[in-house]
Structure formats: structure tokens, C-alpha cells
Design brief:
The complex is a heterodimer.
Chain A: E1 20-23, E2 29-34, H1 39-50, H2 66-79, E3 81-87, E4 90-99, E5 114-121, H3 130-144, E6 149-155, H4 159-168, E7 171-173, E8 179-185
Helix pairs in contact in A: 1-2
Chain B: E1 2-7, H1 11-27, E2 30-35, H2 45-59, E3 64-67, H3 72-82, E4 87-91, E5 94-95, E6 101-102, H4 105-113, E7 117-121
Parallel strand pairs in B: 1-2, 1-4, 2-3, 4-7
Antiparallel strand pairs in B: 5-6
Helix pairs in contact in B: 1-2, 3-4
Pfam family, one (chain A): Acetyltransf_1
Organism (chain A): Natronoglomus mannanivorans
Protein name (chain A): GNAT family N-acetyltransferase
Chain lengths: ~200, ~120
């Protein structure tokens, strides 16, 4: 079914590259920057997911318990493109792209393959503009590396998330079931958004 | 218990088939395996019937094997309604590269429409 996904004809963006420092809606100073999977950073990210409210899980992720979280993050950090939002030395938000291929090591051109997106913001930092910033900086960071095709699934009843994705430029695609599939074609850096035809 | 297992031609269905056969031989359930039509699946309906037949024979499980034509979800629900089934078993979804669980349209239809208890096999 992945082979048949339809991406928008028009590109969205360009999106700004990380890092960025900004004040969120609650007046906290937040830094969004590319995530380096070194040990202290992975520990900080693990800590965020261990604290994550199980009620905010979506489609089985993040997994619960530190061991499962670490296993899950191992794949995401090894093969993925990641940005994290930091406040006071803690990770409070994370956005990631994971390559949609069986063998990530064999990929020559990251622009040819599709990438699956996910984003999580710690409960007490939600509704403060951090999600939008994470999403846009992740797409900026991705397009700097030549990534173009990004998709995601979102629970069909999660209208705030769907609205956020639409605002950034994602379009609904694929068959609807419990999850809604959405896709975006990211403008190359410096390209500007383009109408096709 | 009288169990109806619905499968199509995916790896998810193969896993569900194996696990259900194992469960059936452990607890001595009565089992009916219904193979539905899903043209885009990895294995054809005929191939899947062969697989089921072989695995059932290997396990020594005496089950009824049948094929269903037409829309998979509604065909399964219809059969569940006609028979004396206690439980309808289907695959519990696939995982995205990210690890998100994805339930397809057949699963959604069955969950919302089946008169019996539904079991999703992970």
C-alpha cells in the first residue's frame, strides 16, 4: 500500500532550518535543534518518553517502560532525522523522520524514498506553539539533506493534530480507516513553494 | 468455543493463522478458517487456502476451510452472523516503520459490525 501513496503535486515550504531559540506562549525559553544521538542526549530523550502520559500515546507509540523506550529510540536515532526541543536542560519535545525502507543502509538518495514523521510534546508543554516550531524545523532540517517525501498517520479523531499538519502543508491521502494518512512534498531549500502546472 | 478465523493473503494473516492454529490445538476449540478475497495481498486466495490446509494438517487440527467472495469485511461479518460462532478472529494490524500500529479498513469494518466477540491477534 505504501507504493501507491499519492504526494501533493505542489511543494510546501521552504521551512526554516534549526537551531532556533524562541519564547513559547507560556513565556518559557525553548531551543529547537538537531538531535545528536550521543549518550547524554539519548538519556535526556529517554527521560522525556519515560515521563510521557500514557493517555497521550498514539497507535502504540511511544512504548511504555524505559527498556522498551530505549529499544524504540535506538532504531529512530540510528536511521532517522531528528530534532528536539529543550527547556532548562530537559527534552520537552521531539520530532522524527524514519526512512520507509527495509534496509536504510542501502539508500543512495534520501530524496527518492519516503519518510514517516512523528512528533511528541510533553504534556505540560503542549498548546504553547512548540509543536509547530518542531514540525517546521524538522522539515527544514530534512530538506537541507535532500528529503522530499514525508508522510504520517494520525488517529482520525485527533482534529487538533490534523489541523496542525494541514497548516504546515500536509494533505490528506490514502484510504481512511481508524488512522488518517497525510503526505507532504517538501520544497528544496531556497526553492520557495511552487504551484504546479 | 466455536471460532471463526478470517484471513487474507498478507504476512499479518499468516501470523494470525499460525497463532490461531496453535491456540486451537491447545484448548480444543472448534475452528472454521475463512479465506477472503483481497486482490492486492501478497498471496492469492488459492495460495492462502493451500497454506491454511497444510498448516492445519501439520498441526493435526480438524478445521473447516472455506473461501468467501466479495467485500472481505462484510463477507466475514455475514458468515459470523449465520453460524454459531462465539468469536471472530482477525489480524491485529501491521506496524509502520516508526512502530505505529495500523489497522486497515477490513479490521475497522469487522470491529464495528460483528455480532460476536472479536479477537485481534498481535
Amino acid at each position: 500500500m505504501d507504493g501507491t501513496r499519492v504526494y501533493p503535486d505542489d511543494t510546501a515550504g521552504p521551512f526554516p532550518s534549526p537551531p532556533v531559540t524562541f519564547g513559547d506562549r507560556d513565556g518559557r525559553t525553548i531551543v529547537v535543534r538537531p538531535f545528536d544521538p550521543d549518550e547524554p542526549q539519548v538519556d535526556a530523550l529517554t527521560e522525556m518518553y519515560v515521563q510521557f502520559d500514557p493517555a497521550d500515546r498514539a497507535q502504540g507509540i511511544p512504548p511504555s517502560g524505559e527498556t522498551r523506550v530505549r529499544n524504540w529510540l535506538e532504531t529512530i536515532c540510528a536511521d532517522g532525522v531528528n530534532v528536539a526541543a529543550w527547556h532548562d536542560g530537559r527534552v520537552v519535545g521531539h520530532a522524527t523522520l524514519v526512512p520507509d525502507v527495509d534496509d536504510p543502509a542501502a539508500v543512495d538518495d534520501v530524496g527518492e524514498i519516503a519518510w514517516e514523521l512523528a512528533i511528541f510534546v510533553l504534556q505540560e508543554y503542549q498548546r504553547a506553539g512548540i509543536g509547530t516550531e518542531l514540525l517546521e524545523r524538522l522539515l527544514g532540517h530534512a530538506s537541507d539533506q535532500g528529503i522530499e517525501k514525508v508522510w504520517l498517520t494520525v488517529e482520525r479523531w485527533n482534529s487538533p493534530a490534523i489541523a496542525l499538519y494541514k497548516r504546515v502543508g500536509f494533505e490528506v491521502c490514502g484510504s481512511e480507516s481508524f488512522e488518517q494518512e497525510m503526505a507532504i512534498r517538501v520544497a528544496r531549500a531556497g526553492e520557495g513553494s511552487q504551484e504546479s502546472g | 468455543m466455536n471460532v471463526l478465523l478470517g484471513i487474507e493473503g498478507s504476512d499479518e494473516s499468516m501470523r494470525t493463522l499460525r497463532s490461531t492454529i496453535e491456540r486451537t490445538s491447545e484448548v480444543g476449540d472448534e475452528l472454521t478458517v475463512a479465506v477472503v478475497e483481497k486482490p492486492e495481498a501478497k498471496r492469492s486466495q488459492a495460495e492462502m487456502c493451500e497454506q491454511a490446509k497444510t498448516l492445519l494438517e501439520e498441526a493435526g487440527v480438524d478445521a473447516e476451510l472455506t473461501t468467501l467472495e466479495g467485500d472481505p469485511g462484510s463477507a466475514l461479518v455475514e458468515l459470523a452472523e449465520r453460524g454459531e460462532f462465539d468469536q471472530l478472529v482477525i489480524g491485529g494490524g501491521t506496524q509502520s516503520p516508526m512502530g505505529k500500529i495500523r489497522l486497515g479498513p477490513i479490521t475497522e469494518f469487522v470491529l464495528l459490525n460483528a455480532p460476536t466477540t472479536v479477537k485481534l491477534v498481535r
